[in-house]
Design brief:
The protein is α+β, with helices and mostly antiparallel strands and 216 residues long. It contains 8 helices and 6 strands.
């Protein structure tokens, strides 16, 4: 991430200090009961910060720019009424360059760049970065051989699980219809074969955790 600022930022810094004192902690705007994940979406973050920012002459703009090298970059600029400004630029580099992956990753980074530049916090655990970041997380925490196998499952965020994966799900859920119902509700699907591939690994991990709890 590259950071830039105007020659002077004394007025901006003073205004931001006052705004931060008045900003709310962003609450959770979304909830997924199956994955036990909560997160403050972009709109929730803006609502929690905009009144205080505007009150003290601060504004934020975020622009997606494609450079001559073909790489997309998100520019986030914090501006003060005096003309002083502070900005950050971060590469938008999803695993794939299709519109869905680009949109998911951009939304993910907009939230974090916005929160970082104004210094705000949220009460949330992140979930909406699942599709955007799944490959990077697995590459960091998964042995290479398993990663190679899992990486094949992430080719498209809209691609559904394979027949082999469906069979495995049906096997581990065979005696737990209560968990199966949680899976369907948590993902907003009607049948297991509609499960997106990018959710498969997380779903299996969550199912195995839930299986340790006796059926009600």
């Amino acid at each position: 991430m590259n950071n830039f600022k105007s020659e002077q930022i004394n007025e901006l810094a003073s205004a931001l200090a006052k705004a931060q004192n008045e900003m709310l902690v962003a609450g959770t705007g979304s909830d997924n009961p199956f994955f036990k994940s909560k997160y403050a979406d972009y709109a929730t973050i803006v609502r929690a910060s905009r009144p205080a920012l505007c009150k003290h002459g601060l504004s934020i703009t975020q622009i997606l720019n494609e450079g001559d090298d073909g790489v997309h970059r998100l520019i986030t600029m914090l501006m003060h009424a005096s003309g002083q400004n502070l900005s950050s630029t971060v590469k938008i580099a999803p695993l794939k360059q299709d519109p869905q992956s680009l949109g998911s990753y951009t939304t993910y980074m907009k939230r974090y760049a916005y929160m970082a530049i104004v210094g705000m916090t949220s009460t949330s655990d992140d979930d909406d970065g699942e599709a955007a970041m799944v490959g990077y997380r697995d590459a960091k925490h998964t042995p290479q051989s398993a990663y190679d196998q899992r990486n094949k499952l992430k080719e498209n965020v809209h691609e559904k699980i394979s027949l082999d994966q469906l069979s495995q799900l049906e096997h581990i859920l065979r005696d737990r219809p209560d968990i199966a119902e949680l899976v369907l509700r948590g993902l907003g699907i009607e049948t297991l074969d509609q499960m997106p591939k990018v959710k498969y690994i997380t779903a299996v991990d969550r199912i195995n955790t839930l299986r340790q709890t006796p059926a009600q």
